[in-house]
Amino acid sequence: GHLGLGGLDVFYVADNGEVKNMGTPINSSGDDFSYSFDYTSQKGFVSSNRSGLAENVANDNIYQVVQIQPLKEIEVMAMVINAETGEPVSGASVVVYDKQEQEVASAMTNLQGNTNFTLTGKKGYMLQVNADEYESNGAPVDKEEGQAKVTIELEPIEKMIQEEEIVLAPIYFDFDKADIRKQAAFELDKLVSIMKKHPDMEIKVEAHTDKRGPKTYNQQLSERRAKSTVDYVVSQGIDKSRINWEAFGESKPKVECDNCTEEQYQENRRS
Questions:
Q1: Residues 97-130: pLDDT tens digits?
Q2: Can you tell me the distance from the alpha carbon of 269 to that of 161, in angstroms, rounded to the nearest whole number?
Q3: What is the DSSP code (8-state) at residue 51?
Q4: In this structure, is the dihedral angle defined by the CA atoms of residues 133, 139, 144 and 147, taken in order, positive or negative?
Q5: Would you put residue 23 in left (φ > 0), alpha (ψ -120 to 50) or beta?
Q6: How confident is the model over 135-155, as pLDDT tens digits?
């Protein structure tokens, strides 16, 4: 079979006779099939059970497609290596996200630490990599067309543990939201990996808000953020007895400011 993005996919034949994947958005991580296209109107249809776009995602639905530019593609050749030794990391999970943080493809690295993706040519792709015994890492794809070689270095997971704390990037939230963003989930996956390796480890989550809104409401919002952080970790297989939380509302800002910029507000919305 040819390289796919999930379930069933739509393919095309290039001018040189090579069979290629249509890529996103024609294809998704679900089943995509029964493609038809009218070259006069530059419009067509594809059937799909992709999630997130239809009210009833359990069923197949028909989507209209419109060509807005000639078909371009990127062949991404990803290599995952140990940052300390330079040796390839096999069995690593490599997930491709577009600039809207939507997952468009995923694959595992082979024994040589490699995996390839054929993607629709556009800006903003990001590769995120997870592997047992390693800190997760990511890398951007810097081309819109042709071949892109991307090397992702993974640090052994023990380097993340520094005495009594685990060093993660901050878990940020959108304004007035408590949902776990994809980037936040990526960081929390590192924590999950460490806790699975160290079954006696217990942790505490502290959640905060910016100073917009009433204090009472912000206290409740920080509680929801703390709980959603804990719930995510528990959903990945960590016993809830090993993780507790405390919410501080707006009382402990990371950045003290009266007329904060959006960036400063964002730094204060964290756990």
A1: 888 778 888 889 999 999 988 787 777 899 999 8
A2: 24
A3: S
A4: negative
A5: left
A6: 888 899 988 878 899 999 998
Hey, what long-range contacts does 222-225 have (CB within 8 A, 24 or more apart)? Answer: 222/247, 222/248, 222/249, 222/250, 223/247, 224/178, 225/173, 225/178, 225/269, 225/271
Fill in the amino acid letter for 18.
E
Distance CA 108, CA 92 (A): 5
Spatial separation of the C-alpha atoms in residues 112 and 9, rounded to whole Å:
27
Tokens in use for 116? Answer: 């390839």
CB atoms within 10 A of CB 46: 22
Which residue reads 């707006």 in tokens? Answer: 250
DSSP states of 107-163 as a string?
A: EE--TTSEEEEEEES-S--EEEEE-TTB--EEEE---SSEEEEEEEEE-BGGGGEET
Q: How far apart are CA 271 and CA 249, in angstroms?
A: 11
pTM: 0.49
